[in-house]
Amino acid sequence: MTNILLITADDMDARTPGAFGGDRCATPRLDALASAGMSFRRSHVPIAVCQPSRSAIMTGCLPHRNGAEGFGPIADGIGVLTDHLHEQGFSAGILGKVDHIEPVERFKWDFARSMSQLGLGRSPEAYGRAAREFIAEAAEDARPWFLMANAHDPHRPFHGSEDERAKWSAQQRAAYPEPSRVFSAEEVEVPGFLPDLPEVRREVAQYLSSARRCDDVVGEVLDALEDSGQAQETIVVFLSDNGMAFPFAKANCYLRSTSTPLIVAWPGRIREGAVLEEPFVSTLDLFPTFCEIIGSQVPEGLDGCTLMPLLEESAGAREIAGRDRVHTVFHETSAKRRYEMRCVQTADWGYVWNSWSDGEEEYRAENMQGLSWGAMVGAAEGDDALEERTAFYLRRAPEELYDLRNDPDCLENLAGDPARADDLLAARTALRAELERSADPLLNVFATI
Question: pLDDT digit string (tens) for 311-363?
C-alpha cells in the first residue's frame, strides 16, 4: 500500500521556489523534490485564503458546496478525506494548522501536533521529530499512513519584522530558529504586481527568509521519510494554500492569488524532473487522486478529477490536458469581511467578477498588514499611476479582464476597453458556465450583467 505525505506551505507565492522561476537560494529542498518528481506550472487553489483552501483539499468540493466559505467548519454530511483513509486501514496524522480544518473532531486524527508544539509552526527540527514519531507509530501498527505536514511559514509575521517582535515575546521566538538563509532587501526581486519601493523590498526580503525556513521544514520532514526506509513506498505532494500575503495576491482572485507551486514525487511511478506547462489542475483534484491511490471509491459529485492519468502520463491524460481554464472564488477574509469574487482564468486571459464592488465599499484584508501597503499609499502621493492603483485596490470594479499573456501581473484592467468587447463576452460566458455547473448561489446575480 502506498503512503501519502502531503506537505503544505502557508502563503507561499507560486514563483518563490527556484524550480518555478524564483531565487535558487530560497528553496533548495523543494527544488530537489521537483527534480525527483513532476511540477505543474498551471496549478491553482480554488480559493486564496487558508482555511477554506485546506477544507477544499480535504473534501474535493468548492467552498460554497462544502460549507467552509471562510474560517468556519465544513458542513455536516460532507465527506472528508480521512473517512476514506480510515476505511482503508490508514493511520492519519497532521502537523500544524490543526484548527484550520474544522470541525477538528470530524477528522479523527490518529496523530496531531499543533502550532504551539512545533515552535509556533516554524521549527524544522520539531517537524522532523514529529514526522519520525508518526511514521514509527504507523510502522509499529503495520498500517499505511497519510501525513499532512503544514508549515506555518511564510505566513505573516515574517522573519525579522516588527510584526514578529510585536506578536511574540523573546521567549516565544526562541522556540524556533532563524532560517538557514536570510535575505537582504538589496538582493530580492520584487514581484511585478508590486511597486519597487524600499519598504516593499524590505518586506519581500523578510518574506523570502520565511520561505527559506519553510523549505527547512520541508527538508526535515523529507529526511524523516528517508530515514524511515519508506520513501520508495510513499507519494510526496507539495503545494501552497494560496499566494503571498501582499496586496494583489492572497485573499483575491488574481493569477498570483490562486497559483500554487504543485510538486508530486512518486518513486518508480512518476517521471523524474517532469514539468507540465499546459494542463490546468486544481488542488480540488487531490481528493479524488488520493482516493484512487488508496483504493477507495471516488465519491460522485466532486469538483475535481483524478490526476492519475497525468501523473502516469497514460492515455487518459489527454482529457485532463484538454482543460483550458480554471475556476476560482473568494468569499470572506480571516476577519470575516465578505467580498464575493468569482474568476475564470485561461492561458490567455483572466476575468474577475466582484459582486461586492459598488464604488463605495472598501476592501480590507490581512494582505494589507505590514510594510508594503503603507509604503504604497505613502508613495502614491505625487505619483498618479500608483495613486490610481491603490485607489483601485480599495474599491475595484464590478468586472476585471486581464491579458495574461502580456500582463500576468494584472496591471491593466481591460474590461472597459471597446476593443476587448468580444473577449469580455467570452469571459462572461465561461464564468456563467462554471457558476451553473457548481450551482453557485450568486448565479442569478451574475446573470443580470
Answer: 988 867 777 766 899 999 999 999 999 999 999 999 999 999 999 999 999 99
The C-alpha cell of 75 is what?
458542513
Q: Which residues contact 53 (CB under 8 A, 6 or more apart)?
A: 45, 46, 47, 241, 242, 283
Cα separation, 121 vs 113, in Å, equals 10
- The 8-class DSSP code of residue 259 comes to B
* Residue with grid cell 485564503, as numbered in its chain: 49
Q: How long a stretch of residues is the chain?
A: 449
> What is the Rg, in whole angstroms, of the alpha carbon atoms belonging to the chain?
21
Fold held by 326-446: Arylsulfatase, C-terminal domain (3.30.1120)
pTM here is: 0.97
The pLDDT tens digits of the residues spanning 194-253 come to 999 999 999 999 999 999 999 999 999 999 999 999 999 999 999 999 999 999 999 999
Q: What is the mean pLDDT of the chain?
A: 97
Residue 75's alpha-carbon distances to 80, 103, 279, 302, in angstroms, are 10, 9, 31, 15
Euclidean distance between CA atoms 258 and 327, whole angstroms: 10
Instruction: Give residue 400's identity as a one-letter amino acid code.
Output: E
Give me the amino acid identity at 112.
A
Q: Are 23 and 205 in contact (CB under 8 A)?
A: no
Distance of CA 80 to the CA centre of its chain: 19
The rounded Cα 135 to chain-centroid distance in angstroms is 25
128-136: Cβ within 8 A, 24+ apart: 128/220, 128/221, 128/223, 128/224, 129/224, 130/95, 131/95, 131/220, 131/221, 131/224, 131/225, 132/224, 132/227, 132/228, 134/91, 134/93, 134/95, 135/224, 135/225, 135/228, 135/230, 136/228
How do the domains of the chain map onto residue ranges? 3-317, 326-446
- CATH classification for the domain delimited by 3-317, as one of 3.50.50.60, 3.90.420.10, 3.40.720.10, 1.10.340.30: 3.40.720.10
Cell triple for 58: 480535504
3-317 and 326-446, same CATH topology: no
- Cα distance between residue 258 and residue 250, in whole Å: 8
Start-end of H helices in 45-182 = 50-59, 63-66, 81-87, 124-140, 162-167, 170-173
